């Protein structure tokens, strides 16, 4: 006897698409300005920040496409719609961020040995332009950053860009006041240090969803014990939990009950109690659940069949 509790795949709110569109426009504009600045000044910090901006502009564009796809409804061929596109987009962004961080470290070490001359005044101008633009983009994305992995990735990337611009500005000021040219390279390495840990964290989170790991905060041993504590429940097996997309955890299991439950009408009551249990009793509320009720004899036959 199988049953499911299905909540629609839903979709990202349309205003998320508008926010991402504005942020992408700002970031793309800053990218062009900083690319020109990197060529004119030869600054590694500005070049690293420009590469970061390229990554983030690409990431924001991917995020914008992902949000648009997520708004498309589910179909009989795509029962979750495009909800998981946000996870794929976050994974791509994390990989790009990691690549930029590694490049900055390698090039930074080389330039520490032989630092080139960097004009501080031009570097300061482009750094301030980048900082102002990123602050505006942060303001646009701030309120929606907790909506899903994709928007969180976009917000973190813009914050990293702003911190990178701060590094460029500081490097320009140090060079202008002290003539210490390695300040530019040090700033580039600081930017790389900001990029890499966040890239790894985002990569880990996206991978956990794609590998269908148990949702963080949900202890399946506790779930099993709580279901077993219900009247008439004899066993729980094939218990699985995963995450389809942000805010959409799922769980399924085979629940063994007394034979009498199928004769006296208790079966449906037990299903509802188990559903309520996983939806309200644990830190992670799982409202999309599928439970198969079976007798001990059926469980034993299945176990023999898989032996």
Automatic annotation (TrEMBL):
<protein>
    <submittedName>
        <fullName>Cation diffusion facilitator family transporter</fullName>
    </submittedName>
</protein>
<feature type="domain" description="Cation efflux protein transmembrane">
    <location>
        <begin position="22"/>
        <end position="211"/>
    </location>
</feature>
<dbReference type="InterPro" id="IPR027469">
    <property type="entry name" value="Cation_efflux_TMD_sf"/>
</dbReference>
<keyword id="KW-0812">Transmembrane</keyword>
<dbReference type="InterPro" id="IPR002524">
    <property type="entry name" value="Cation_efflux"/>
</dbReference>
<dbReference type="InterPro" id="IPR036837">
    <property type="entry name" value="Cation_efflux_CTD_sf"/>
</dbReference>
<dbReference type="InterPro" id="IPR050681">
    <property type="entry name" value="CDF/SLC30A"/>
</dbReference>
<keyword id="KW-0472">Membrane</keyword>
<dbReference type="Pfam" id="PF16916">
    <property type="entry name" value="ZT_dimer"/>
</dbReference>
<dbReference type="GO" id="GO:0005886">
    <property type="term" value="C:plasma membrane"/>
</dbReference>
<feature type="domain" description="Cation efflux protein cytoplasmic">
    <location>
        <begin position="215"/>
        <end position="294"/>
    </location>
</feature>
<dbReference type="InterPro" id="IPR027470">
    <property type="entry name" value="Cation_efflux_CTD"/>
</dbReference>
<feature type="transmembrane region" description="Helical">
    <location>
        <begin position="154"/>
        <end position="180"/>
    </location>
</feature>
<keyword id="KW-0406">Ion transport</keyword>
<dbReference type="InterPro" id="IPR058533">
    <property type="entry name" value="Cation_efflux_TM"/>
</dbReference>
<feature type="transmembrane region" description="Helical">
    <location>
        <begin position="124"/>
        <end position="142"/>
    </location>
</feature>
<dbReference type="Pfam" id="PF01545">
    <property type="entry name" value="Cation_efflux"/>
</dbReference>
<keyword id="KW-1133">Transmembrane helix</keyword>
<keyword id="KW-0813">Transport</keyword>
<feature type="transmembrane region" description="Helical">
    <location>
        <begin position="58"/>
        <end position="75"/>
    </location>
</feature>
<dbReference type="GO" id="GO:0005385">
    <property type="term" value="F:zinc ion transmembrane transporter activity"/>
</dbReference>
<feature type="transmembrane region" description="Helical">
    <location>
        <begin position="20"/>
        <end position="46"/>
    </location>
</feature>
<feature type="transmembrane region" description="Helical">
    <location>
        <begin position="87"/>
        <end position="104"/>
    </location>
</feature>
<comment type="similarity">
    <text>Belongs to the cation diffusion facilitator (CDF) transporter (TC 2.A.4) family. SLC30A subfamily.</text>
</comment>
<feature type="transmembrane region" description="Helical">
    <location>
        <begin position="186"/>
        <end position="203"/>
    </location>
</feature>
């Amino acid at each position: 006897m199988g049953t499911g509790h299905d909540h629609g795949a839903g979709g990202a709110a349309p205003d998320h698409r508008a926010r991402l569109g504005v942020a992408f426009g700002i970031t793309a504009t800053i990218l062009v300005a900083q690319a020109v600045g990197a060529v004119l000044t030869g600054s590694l910090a500005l070049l690293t920040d420009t590469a970061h901006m390229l990554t983030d502009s690409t990431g924001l564009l991917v995020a914008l496409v992902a949000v648009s796809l997520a708004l498309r409804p589910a179909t009989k061929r795509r029962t979750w719609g495009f909800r998981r596109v946000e996870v794929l987009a976050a994974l791509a962004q994390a990989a790009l961020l990691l690549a930029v961080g590694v490049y900055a470290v390698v090039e930074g070490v080389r330039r520490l040995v032989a630092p080139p001359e960097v004009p501080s005044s031009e570097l300061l101008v482009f750094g301030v332009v980048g900082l102002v633009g990123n602050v505006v983009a942060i303001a646009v994305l701030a309120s929606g950053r907790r909506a899903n992995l994709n928007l969180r990735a976009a917000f973190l990337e813009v914050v990293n860009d702003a911190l990178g611009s701060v590094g460029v500005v500081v490097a320009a000021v140090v060079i202008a006041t002290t003539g210490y040219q390695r300040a530019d390279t040090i700033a580039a390495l600081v930017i790389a240090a900001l990029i890499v840990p966040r890239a790894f964290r985002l990569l880990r989170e996206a991978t956990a969803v794609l590998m269908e790991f148990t949702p963080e905060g949900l202890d399946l041993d506790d779930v099993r014990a709580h279901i077993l504590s219900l009247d008439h429940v004899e066993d729980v097996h094939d218990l699985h939990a995963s995450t389809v997309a942000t805010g959409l955890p799922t769980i399924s299991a085979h629940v063994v009950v007394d034979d009498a439950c199928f004769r006296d009408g208790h079966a449906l009551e037990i299903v509802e109690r188990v559903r309520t249990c996983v939806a309200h009793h644990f830190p992670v509320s799982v409202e999309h659940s599928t439970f198969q009720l079976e007798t001990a004899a059926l469980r034993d036959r299945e176990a023999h069949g898989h032996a």
